[in-house]
Amino acid sequence: MTPAPKPTGSAGPSDAGSRLTVLIAADTFPPDVNGAANFAERLAVGLAGRGHDVHVICPAASRHHGTFLEEHDGQTLTVHRLYSTRWPLHDWLRFATPWRAESNAERIIDRIRPDVVHIQSHIVIGRAVVKVANRRGIRVIATNHFMPENLLEHTGLPHALRATAVRLAWRDAAKTYTHVAAITTPTKKAATFLERSVDVTGVLAVSCGINASDYTARDDRPAGNEVVFVGRVTAEKQIDVLLRAMTLIDPALDARLTIVGGGDLMKQLQQLTVDLGLAARVTFAGYLSDTELRRRLTDATVFAMPSIAELQSIASLEAMASGLPIVVADAMALPHLLDDGVNGYLFRPGDSRDLAAKLTRVFEASDDEYLAMRRASLAVIEGHDIQRTVSVFESLYRGEPVAEAADVPPTRAS
């Protein structure tokens, strides 16, 4: 392995209370709906709320590009939206034009003169921003949300070539990540994985964080047995595994499933639901407002996440902030969100029968056992507050030593 990335650029203002000009570079940003976009927005809002001058450079969500003052969760951000093109094999993903990204980054950086830039990926905008920042002597922080598997389904590559594509993708990432002052990723498991994939050391685990106070947990047990999934309706989420699990749950439990989100597999999975005889028990809710999403989480019985490519899973954190037990695949970073049998259960990835068995355990738990799982989920969330995350990044921006703000293991209920 190569040594940890060396500090790049100045450390920014040394006064811990000084105002920073921060440029967040993201290849996806709201109105896109995904974990990386949501994190970039929450971080930007949190920094702006502390008085920093926050700019975001990202692809335009349509042909309407330029620099705009945008309202995000009560804070005004300066958002530089670059001309972009929709990826033809995806229902909404747009990329900034690669051959213009560096000149655009140079123009924006020279105009705003940031103290620090914080990239959210290495793909197009992040790569360009790092090159310009390095030339200008500006400190660079990187957060990795990238998993090649999450993009390969939208490339059209044959399955036989995908292992090679993954290796090449990580090799490409290394060309950018070895030129930054610090690298973070949401969990310790993801940090270890990134160190191995990019051949660096010293990757920090910093939770994406959520505003836990935005979510409401019930004091009692819901009357029904309602499973909820929140996320993109796309191949890497393995929603078909969850649907097949629903067919294996004892009909006497009257288990029902709500799928919140949209994506390219919506019609295919809706047809699978009909084919499996689940049409009366499964609801495809599509995209919901924040208020309606939170209500659905509050009123559900258990949250399920069958995906095998999660670097943290913001949706799982939101479920736990709503007091839900979670049943998640024993893959990537998901095991770090629970103590098996305490605030939920792990199941074997891709195994519908095991997933059905673990959901059944939640449904058949006594009231005392079930409520203990709810309390354990709420205890875990205390370590994932967004304000804690913002504080860690403020320190990184200034070149100060930091304590990791990542996985906080559940505490067993007494």
TrEMBL record:
Taxonomic superkingdom: Bacteria
InterPro entries cross-referenced by the UniProt entry: Glyco_trans_4-like_N, Glycosyltransferase_grp1
Family matches, as Gene3D superfamilies: Glycogen Phosphorylase B (3.40.50.2000)
GO molecular function term, any single one: glycosyltransferase activity
Keywords: Glycosyltransferase, Transferase
GO BP annotations listed: carbohydrate derivative biosynthetic process
Ranges where the Glycosyltransferase subfamily 4-like N-terminal domain occurs: 33-212
Protein's recorded name: D-inositol 3-phosphate glycosyltransferase
